Amino acid sequence: MRITSKILSSVVLALCSLVVQGQVKRGDSLSYEILLSKSMLKDLQPDIKFIHSLEITAKRQILLATKDQFYLLGWGGIASIGKKVTGNIDCFAYTPDNLLMAIRGNELCTFDSLGGMKRIVELPAEGMGISAGKFVMYLFDRINTKGNFSLYIFAKGGKYIKLVETPDPINSVIEMKNSILFASGNKLYSCNVRNKTVKAIAGLAERKEIKYLAADTLNNRIYFSTDNALYTYKDSLTSLITSNIGGWLRFFNNGLIVFNPEKIVLVRILGLEKEIARVKEQKPKKEVKVEKNMLTNEKIIAMVQAKVSDQFIIDLIGVSETHFDLSVDSMVALSNQNVSSAVIMAMRNAMKKKNDNNQQNK
Fold this sequence. Notes:
The protein is an alpha+beta fold. It folds into 2 domains: about 10-280, Neuraminidase; about 295-360, no CATH class. It is built from 5 helices and 25 strands. The chain has helices at about 270-280, 295-305, 310-320, 330-335, 340-360; strands spanning about 1-5, 30-35, 55, 60-65, 70-75, 75-80, 90-95, 100-105, 105-110, 115-120, 130, 135-140, 150-155, 160-165, 170-175, 180-185, 185-190, 195-205, 210-215, 220-225, 230-235, 235-240, 250, 255-260, 265-270. The chain has a 5-stranded mixed β-sheet with strand order 1-22-21-20-19, with no helix packed on it. A 4-stranded antiparallel β-sheet has the order 2-25-24-23, covered by helices on one side. Helix 3 packs parallel to helix 5 (about 340-360).
């Protein structure tokens, strides 16, 4: 197993959207949507604490939750739905036939007609994780138990069957064609369901724990993350995408969704497969000398912090020499510093125009 250095050198903010189904401008290989940030929650509840779980509803909206309340992210922003639940929501997932299930303590629950949680079956341990396969659900031990940590298949009728045991907590489970993949400790494992054999297929340094998994089945690519970094795995090669954001992952509609509840950052990245291929073939870029009067990311952030209006910053970008860093890390940093989507779009357009002019002058 080999680990390469960071592979992504450029990223474009194509649209700041509050909906999964929002349209993204095409043309660049990579685009980046901010679906949720701290600034969007200031009118709802500034100190809100989401749990590490996320789902996509049948209407292609995003379902989030705190310990006692569900929230729906869609057209018009984010709003609480249903009533507060009794007991803590640990995690949740939709079944293959679109039934919402949640873990509450040592109970697997669904919801009644009034939106209240009702127990389906008692689980073998507290705080288990849940994820959906094509035909079945998976339950797995995420916290300390007596002895080993187990992965179960849960089928209709309330029956669960133990599949494998590991010495470390199981953090995430997904299906990938004919195999089940799961993250435990600093390793990514593949499990053959027929003979229940398990093998490690990727790993990180000992102090790094793989927390979340997502699969792009069309391109046979796996994405996995720690709390603050994002990786990709394909053909026995593990590559670092970014060391500035990690969290809960979901591959949906050709885009990778990354959700970090602590930072309250929810983003969707599109075009990763093309960008990975492009970067592999790309020749090393020559170092660009940044002139004193050039506008940079740091200068944009400084103006935002000084309460300079967006329109003034956008106008200034239009008439200035620019050298902006539009990498994944930098886009997250700009968002965290409250740089608006309109300003980032202007930065993106300025760099695109600059690159087009450079190509024409060659």
